[in-house]
Design goal:
single chain, mainly alpha, 0% strand, globular
């Protein structure tokens, strides 16, 4: 996804040209979906949170400065965390009649490569990968978050991409 394209689409949306929203949504929905599903496992609730995130984003377009993806992902994360807090008192237990029986021990994941990376990378390595690739932060911003030199984060990032490329073979078998 091109950061320049997102910034251009944001400028069009700020100018009131709603016809550009579909393209903006198409470019960002994967990252937003990933962020929400990280916190909310029920697909039904996650879909609602994703839509609420876009509504909040559109309602606050004037507040968005620079790259819109980190801003949008932050909204999605906050909405997901808010939903967890609101629903903490709700009984989500199911009766045996509602349960589906597993036919195999293999559970499909929506992001097999990310799950493989999460298992095989250290916490810091996955933080770098997740924040640069999914959340859309620059490596300079990630370096500031980690309080490390940019050159160190750049080196780690490039090494992570090589590792992830090798892991892709395993993840998509």
């Amino acid at each position: 996804m091109s950061r320049l394209k997102l910034k251009w689409l944001l400028s069009k949306l700020k100018a009131g040209k709603k016809e550009y929203f579909e393209e903006f949504y198409t470019l960002t929905k994967g990252a937003v979906w990933y962020v929400v599903r990280k916190y909310v496992r029920e697909r039904f609730f996650a879909e609602d949170i994703v839509q609420d995130s876009y509504i909040s984003f559109l309602n606050n377009l004037s507040s968005v400065k620079g790259d819109p993806l980190p801003y949008l992902c932050s909204i999605a994360k906050n909405k997901a965390l808010d939903s967890i807090k609101k629903e903490s008192g709700i009984d989500k237990s199911v009766t045996p009649e509602d349960l589906e029986f597993a036919v195999s021990d293999n559970y499909a994941t929506e992001a097999p490569l990310l799950e493989t990376c999460r298992k095989n990378f250290s916490e810091e390595e996955f933080f770098i990968l997740e924040n640069t690739v999914i959340y859309g932060y620059t490596r300079v911003e990630v370096a500031a978050m980690l309080k490390k030199p940019v050159s160190t984060v750049n080196r780690q990032y490039n090494a992570l991409l090589k590792k992830a490329k090798e892991m892709a073979k395993e993840a998509y078998r």
